[in-house]
Amino acid sequence: MDHRLLLRRLRLPLAGALLGWAAAAAADVTTEQKIGLNLAGFVRMNGTSTESLSGDKQRKDSQMHCEGFMSLLCGKAKSGEIVRLDRDLEWRLQPDKKRYTEQPFPTPEQRALAKQKMQEMAAKLQECQRQRPQGKQAVDKSKCDLSPPKVEVKKSDETATLAGHLARRSSVTLTQTCTDRETGDVCDLVYGFDAWLTADEVPGLAEQRAFTRAHMKKLGLDPEDDVMKGQVRRLMAQYADTFKQLSQKAGDLKGHPLRTRFYLAMGGEHCARAKQSSSTEGNAEGGGGMGGAASAIKSKLLGGLFGGKKSSEEPAGAQAGGANAQAPGAPVTLVEFSVETVAIDAAAIPPERFEIPAGWTLEPPQPPGKERDVDCKAADAG
């Protein structure tokens, strides 16, 4: 697993509605965060990330490590990146090897070509949707009938002091019930998002938003671009009602998140798959060793939510008095990802922080990978 790619995908940047990035020169700010990832109780990763921002320069340093026997496979990994808007380039750092790669920002011609290819791909995806038989969705409803999504937003009285700021917890959940026609399983799928929000003025927030917007423009990813907004609307059309419902109910949540947690859980009194997952997770955690871990991989990561037949045997972990017994219908967390801000420092940052250290080696650029065309059959199969 490339943890750098993971962080870049999961840590979505804040892109505020600022008109420019000139405000980025107002102050320096260094933000430290803790990151956690849990995949079905089997893969556990924890790490830290430090972001330094000064005007048109940004540096991120990350370290991730796995827990349990998985530490034998992924150990500790360090990475970093320096973004220089003033030089129109980005450096990817390999601290353990004292090596780095250099990636110039795309030229206007390259951005125009990328935009054209994005338009062509969007058109092909739309054509795939038109070719899809009526009633056929991304989820195979021949096996699973999905109920309309139910969105719920809650404000709690739970508070915490994070990075010196008082934050209050709010939560957003989206629940769908999946009824499997073949096995009779009835499982609730819960997508949850917890956020501890502060109403305080957070140092460096405006600078981070402005830098992100300027960086996106340098890469040709302007969110205000009419073409891009149109493509996003078309591709997300099938989810429009869900997002509308979500935005309406979450619109009254105010503040800046200092701790966030996303999770996917599965449960239900008549959900055998969730009971099996709970039992397997208990085996993996309670001394099952490699055998229990292998079962966890097979059951959770490869088996799919409704891929197998309903078992007539009661899972060991769900038996009365078992070490991992849970109440009937209790949800089992399959995926969990969390980010917490632990420190914010507005002290001046030395300029050399945004330079390549002496003695490091520049690696040659990797050849571009082969471009993939859109395959409608493959998209439907996935």
- What average pLDDT do the residues reach? 75
SSE ordering: HEEEHEEEHEEEEHHHEHHEEH
Count of alpha/pi helices: 9
State which percent range the strand residues make up: 35-45%
Number of strands: 13
Tally of structural domains: 1
**How can the largest sheet be summarized?**
13 strands, mixed
Q: Percent range for helical residues?
A: 25-40%
Give the N-to-C terminal Cα separation: 21 Å
Shape: globular
Give a structural overview.
This protein is an alpha+beta fold and 382 residues long. The chain has one domain (3-308, 325-381). The chain is 27% helix and 35% strand. It is built from nine helices and 13 strands. The chain has helices at 3-10, 71-74, 108-131, 205-218, 226-235, 240-250, 272-285, 289-302, 376-381, and strands spanning 28-39, 43-54, 57-66, 76-84, 89-94, 99-104, 144-146, 150-162, 165-180, 186-198, 256-270, 329-345, 361-362. Strands 1, 2, 3, 4, 5, 6, 7, 8, 9, 10, 11, 12 and 13 form a 13-stranded mixed sheet that branches. A hairpin with a 2-residue loop joins β8 and β9. α3 (108-131) packs parallel to α5 (226-235) and α7 (272-285) runs antiparallel to α8. The chain is globular, with a radius of gyration of 23 Å. The model is unreliable at 1-25, 135-141 and 283-325 (pLDDT under 50).
Q: Which tags fit this structure?
A:
disordered N terminus; 382 residues; alpha+beta; 35% strand; 9 helices
Could you outline the blueprint of secondary structure elements for this entry?
Elements: H1 3-10, E1 28-39, E2 43-54, E3 57-66, H2 71-74, E4 76-84, E5 89-94, E6 99-104, H3 108-131, E7 144-146, E8 150-162, E9 165-180, E10 186-198, H4 205-218, H5 226-235, H6 240-250, E11 256-270, H7 272-285, H8 289-302, E12 329-345, E13 361-362, H9 376-381
